[in-house]
Amino acid sequence: KQANLELKKAQNEIINAVDVFKLAVDPKNNDHYLAATGSGLYERASAASGWSQVRPLPAHDFQYTTAYAVPFDPADSNTFYVGAEGRVYKTADGGSTWSSVSVNGFVTDIAVTPGGSSYLYATTRKTGYTNGSVYRIAKDMSSATAIKPAGDFDYNAVVVDPNDSGYDRVFVGGGNYFGTSLLGKIYETTN
């Protein structure tokens, strides 16, 4: 059965960016949003406010760097993660300060495990000089470990099974952006 939902422009919808890649809704405040865009990260702090660009990262020119992925940490609204080219960033204070860890490729998705786990997962797609991969990243940004061998494949989506008590059951999906004959695939962790 098809739902009859009307899609209309959101209130205060203007973002000064060419592309919007991902949106995130604060799990503790449904009026607080983040947008990963071609011009960095944007935030709408309340239903009455407009979108504003989040302060750039100090170590990189984040203001003009494409943000491809953005989730909130489910345990804390001031903690969120941003996926860009070659890096996953974390803020624990709403964007005032940042830490990061290096990965290969463009970060296409990030899945944050619930508060009881100290990891998150990120997928990447290949670039002209790297292959796509899947990473298990420490939430404190101290390490990133490739858990799927890099290959001529773009990993585009990741989700953690919330019913797995150890949060180690992860599903990853992908395909290929650049016209090869590779079909889309879904992977599941086996441990």
Structure summarized in a few sentences:
The protein has strands spanning 20-25, 33-37, 40-44, 52-53, 72-73, 76-91, 99-112, 119-125, 132-138, 144-151, 154-160, 170-175, 185-188. By secondary structure, the protein is mainly beta. The mean pLDDT is 82.
Can you describe what's shown?
The termini are far apart. The chain has strands spanning 20-25, 33-37, 40-44, 52-53, 72-73, 76-91, 99-112, 119-125, 132-138, 144-151, 154-160, 170-175, 185-188. The relative contact order is 0.11. Strand 5 and strand 6 form a beta hairpin. The mean pLDDT is 82. It contains no helices and 13 strands. The chain has a six-stranded antiparallel sheet, with no helix packed on it. It has 191 residues and is mainly β. It is globular.
Class based on secondary structure composition and strand pairing: mainly beta
Rg = 17 Å
Order of helices and strands: EEEEEEEEEEEEE
Main sheet overview: 6 strands, antiparallel
Tally of DSSP β-strands: 13
Sheet with the most strands: spatial strand order: 5-6-7-8-9-10
User: Count of helical segments?
Assistant: 0
Mean pLDDT: 82
Helical fraction: under 10%
User: N- to C-terminal separation?
Assistant: 37 Å
Low-confidence stretches: none
Percentage of residues in strands: over 45%
> Overall 3D geometry?
globular
